[in-house]
Write a structure and sequence with these properties.
The chain has about 220 residues and is mainly beta. It has one helix at about 1-25, and strands at about 40-45, 45-50, 55-60, 70-75, 80-90, 95-100, 105-115, 120, 125-130, 140-145, 150, 165-170, 175, 180-190, 195-205, 210-215. The radius of gyration is 23 Å and the shape is globular.
C-alpha cells in the first residue's frame, strides 16, 4: 500500500514539473486563452497583436490620431511589456512608446520626431535618430522612460564657429550591457571632399563620445 502511495506522489510530482516546463516553453498571451504564440505587427497602418492561428487584436488604431496617416514601424521591448512605434504624418515621423495591456496599449507617450527606435536590453531606454526634412544634422538621442526625458548626445559634434561639419547619424545600437550606444554616421564639410563616414561610440552615463573610422 505504501509503495502505491509513493508511486502516486512521484507521478504527481512528475506531472507538476512537466506542466511547469510546458507553460514556460509554450507561453500564451493571457488575454487569449488557448491561443498560440503571437507577434506585434502593423496591419493596414494600425498596430495589432497577430496570433499564429490568424486571429488578431488591435493595439493602436491609427484613426485615434488626428495627425497620423499610418504607423510604419513597431518594436516590442525585450521584456515584452512595452512597444515603441513610428507614425507618419504629413511631414515629420513621430516616435511614440506605450505600455502593453491585455488588449490595448496604455500610457502612450509622444516622444519626439524620429526615424527609428531601438530598445535597450533592459527595456528602460530607447535610442533613436531625429527625423529631418532638409539638410539638417541628424543626431543620436536616448529617451529614458523613468524620467520621461530625451538627451541629445551628439549635438556638440555638429557645426560650430570653429568648424563646419554636419553629421548625419544612422540607426543606433546598444552594447550588451547598455552602457554604450554605437551609431555610424556620414558627414559633409567644406574641404571639397566627398561625404565621408565614421562611427561614434557614446558612453550613456558620462556622455563621452569616441569616434572611429569605418572599416574597409
Amino acid at each position: 500500500m505504501k509503495s502505491k502511495i509513493k508511486l502516486f506522489i512521484v507521478l504527481i510530482v512528475i506531472f507538476v514539473i512537466s506542466f511547469a516546463v510546458y507553460k514556460l516553453l509554450f507561453k500564451k498571451h493571457p488575454s487569449q486563452p488557448g491561443e498560440v504564440e503571437s507577434s506585434i505587427e502593423i496591419v493596414d497602418g494600425s498596430i495589432y497583436r497577430v496570433y499564429k492561428t490568424g486571429n488578431k487584436e488591435m493595439l493602436v488604431d491609427k484613426e485615434d490620431y488626428d495627425t497620423i496617416m499610418e504607423f510604419t514601424y513597431v518594436a516590442e521591448s525585450p521584456d515584452g511589456k512595452k512597444i515603441c512605434f513610428l507614425g507618419q504624418s504629413m511631414v515629420p515621423i513621430w516616435l511614440y512608446y506605450g505600455r502593453l495591456e491585455e488588449k490595448a496599449v496604455v500610457e502612450v507617450e509622444e516622444v519626439d520626431s524620429a526615424r527609428n527606435c531601438v530598445w535597450s536590453n533592459n527595456s528602460q531606454k530607447i535610442a533613436y535618430n531625429n527625423h529631418t526634412t532638409d539638410v539638417s544634422p541628424v543626431n543620436v538621442y536616448v529617451y529614458d522612460i523613468k524620467t520621461d526625458e530625451s538627451t541629445n548626445f551628439t549635438e556638440s559634434l555638429q557645426s560650430r564657429e570653429d568648424i563646419y561639419e554636419i553629421r548625419f547619424y544612422k540607426e543606433p545600437k546598444w552594447s550588451d550591457d547598455d552602457s554604450e550606444v554605437i551609431s555610424p554616421y556620414s558627414y559633409l564639410d567644406t574641404s571639397g571632399q566627398p561625404t565621408r563616414e565614421g562611427i561614434s561610440t557614446i558612453n550613456v552615463s558620462t556622455g563621452k563620445i569616441t569616434d572611429s573610422a569605418v572599416s574597409d
